[in-house]
Design goal:
With about 200 residues, this protein is α/β, with parallel strands linked by helices. The protein has helices at about 5-25, 25-45, 75-85, 105-110, 115-135, 150-160, 175-190, and strands spanning about 65-70, 95-100, 140-145, 165-170, 190-195. Helices cover about 50% and strands about 15% of the residues.
Length: about 200
């Protein structure tokens, strides 16, 4: 933590306590202090470490392509682009391919702790994507990942030992969360990274 941040954290907790005590006595001061403490902890938990993800590609290691899909891959243009990245057309070395679909959990499902609908939708995305890619010669394994795209990539990129990551998303307007994830992955991934934007259609 930077040295200048600690005094700010102390002030963020102390100021509400002092103001609460001055306004309505110790009870309100302690309550406001507790709320400020909870807020600081919540922000700290939400902050993501900014360390690099994955390992630098080794030219001696076989290519492993991690394809992250925030939507089903079905259209011929997208499947052809992925096939080219996988080396199916012979333009580059053939890659081992893994398809990853984050389980995108809706607000109400998260509130109710009901994760099954999101997992089923992610599995449906995987089935459709793997089947479409198989038609153009891409043989791939598939996994359902964390709802957060960056976390899903971070969880899998090490165990799969991906040398390249391809993120397939809708446009920024259709899926702003995926756009933010793409920006962060571009900054943090040590592997090769490419984003493929598919226009039109629904998530």
């Amino acid at each position: 933590m930077a040295p200048w941040k600690l005094p700010l954290l102390v002030l963020a907790i102390a100021v509400p306590i002092v103001l609460g005590i001055l306004a309505a006595g110790p009870g309100l001061g302690l309550a406001l202090g507790a709320l400020a403490g909870v807020a600081v902890v919540w922000i700290a938990v939400r902050m993501r470490p900014r360390a690099g993800i994955g390992e630098l590609p080794d030219p001696a290691v076989r290519r492993r392509l991690l394809v992250v899909v925030s939507r089903p891959v079905e259209d011929p243009v997208t499947t052809a682009a992925i096939a080219a990245e996988a080396g199916v057309d012979g333009g580059r070395d053939l890659a081992e391919v893994m398809i990853l679909a984050p389980a995108r959990i809706g607000f109400l499902d998260r509130w109710a702790s009901d994760l099954e609908p999101a997992r089923r939708e992610a599995q449906r995305t995987l089935v459709m994507s793997v089947a479409s890619l198989a038609k153009v010669g891409v043989v791939a394994e598939a996994r359902v990942g964390d709802e957060d795209i960056v976390q899903a990539v971070e969880d899998l990129v090490g165990s799969f030992r991906a040398t390249e990551v391809l993120l397939v998303t809708a446009s920024d307007e259709e899926d702003p969360a995926a756009a933010a994830a793409a920006e962060e992955l571009s900054d943090r991934l040590r592997t090769g990274f490419l984003r493929l934007v598919v226009e039109g259609g629904e998530e």
